[in-house]
Amino acid sequence: MVNVVFLHPDLGIGGAERAVIDAALALQSRNHQASLKVEFVTAHHDDNHCFKETTDGSLKVTVAGDWLPRSVCGRMYALCAYLRMVYAALYLVFFSGISFDLVFCDQISACIPVLRLQRKASVLFYCHFPDLLLTQRQTLLKRLYRKPLDWLEEWTTGLAHCVLVNSKFTAGVFHRTFTSLGYMEPDVLYPIPDFTQFDGEVIAPTDDLIPAKDAIVFLSINRYERKKNLPLALDAMACLLEKESEQNIHLVMAGGYDDRVIENREHYLELKERARSLGIEGHVTFKRSFSGEEKKTLLSSAECLLYTPDQEHFGIVPIEAMYMQCPVVAVRSGGPLETVVDGQTGFLCDPDAVSFCSAMEKFVSNRDLSKKFGRAGHERVISRFSFQAFTHKLNGIVMNLCA
């Protein structure tokens, strides 16, 4: 029996969480739960704000360290996240009684030295993106605060037995960022979801999901975070409505939302105010968090997906959209360069409202374009991004490390 523990900082709702859950389900499905056991240890898990696999018995979840603060007076989020993850690792190694042969650790590498104290176990670190590139250093105090954390991230990442990255783009960023780890060659493992969750009957949209009847629906799915560049979707919508004033056009801004996260609350209000100031609030629905069934309905009903992050390391939502035959309009950078084919499965655009509006206008003027691109996108996902290939590769990596 091979025992694998997934150590994750916060099992909420987001792309990183979906990726590790799918990885765990992939390993279970490959080994039919007979020769391999999978479970999670995390610093936070809310039954009312999580993916259903973590509550329906599919995956065992243990919480350790949720009593530790997430911030200090609204600051030091990174330091607190590091401490919470280190505590969870200490709990796993010394107090949990959980037997493990491999730890699949992601997002925060600071806990790896603790995990290495269990000498018989291997540590696999999944690098979604270097944390040191995700924050701005505009003040001297912030730079002094981040310097030891940045050093710690690079040093501890190098202690992993194996490092995986989520795209070729991230692999390049990894090499340019962690210059002392030039000897390491991270392997690319695209975080492909289990598409069976999107099969089956699609429920008709309710009024609270898509209130505008018979509308041309554009869809944005992303967490309510400023780095996701969500105002771009609103600006592009305003631009489109100026050109197509006679058309019944609607935008659904759906996204992961956690009331504990100050940025989620603030940015949601910022986006609503922006829609109001642009005069398009009657054409926009804000959906904070949603179920898997609602996501299926949204992707089935939309003319296309507007994917606004710039330099996004991979992006699972465009893959899900294409599987559901929903074309993707994305920024021409990062992961979408590897997943979206410009002019065939969607459009790759500059990160400005005019460029996005131009792409959206094509779907309004040619109502057959969405179906054409949708079919091509579905075929691309089936041929290039299969869950079976993802499962086979991940299982091989895990078994080699545990050998």
UniProtKB/TrEMBL annotation:
The record's annotation in Pfam families points to: Glyco_transf_4, Glycos_transf_1
Show the catalytic activity. Answer: an alpha-D-Man-(1->3)-beta-D-Man-(1->4)-beta-D-GlcNAc-(1->4)-alpha-D-GlcNAc-diphospho-di-trans,poly-cis-dolichol + GDP-alpha-D-mannose = an alpha-D-Man-(1->3)-[alpha-D-Man-(1->6)]-beta-D-Man-(1->4)-beta-D-GlcNAc-(1->4)-alpha-D-GlcNAc-diphospho-di-trans,poly-cis-dolichol + GDP + H(+); a beta-D-Man-(1->4)-beta-D-GlcNAc-(1->4)-alpha-D-GlcNAc-diphospho-di-trans,poly-cis-dolichol + GDP-alpha-D-mannose = an alpha-D-Man-(1->3)-beta-D-Man-(1->4)-beta-D-GlcNAc-(1->4)-alpha-D-GlcNAc-diphospho-di-trans,poly-cis-dolichol + GDP + H(+)
GO cellular component term of the entry, any: endoplasmic reticulum membrane
Pathway, per record: Protein modification; protein glycosylation
- Domain Glycosyltransferase subfamily 4-like N-terminal, by residue range, is 13-176
Q: What is its main location?
A: endoplasmic reticulum
Source taxon at top rank: Eukaryota
Question: Single GO molecular-function term?
Answer: GDP-Man:Man(1)GlcNAc(2)-PP-Dol alpha-1,3-mannosyltransferase activity
- Keyword vocabulary terms for this entry: Endoplasmic reticulum, Glycosyltransferase, Membrane, Transferase, Transmembrane, Transmembrane helix
- What topology does the record note for this protein and the membrane? Single-pass membrane protein
Free-text function comment from the UniProt entry = Mannosylates Man(2)GlcNAc(2)-dolichol diphosphate and Man(1)GlcNAc(2)-dolichol diphosphate to form Man(3)GlcNAc(2)-dolichol diphosphate.
UniProt lists the family membership as follows: Belongs to the glycosyltransferase group 1 family.
Q: What is this protein called?
A: Alpha-1,3/1,6-mannosyltransferase ALG2
Q: Which organism is it from?
A: Capitella teleta
Q: What is the lineage of its organism?
A: Eukaryota, Metazoa, Spiralia, Lophotrochozoa, Annelida
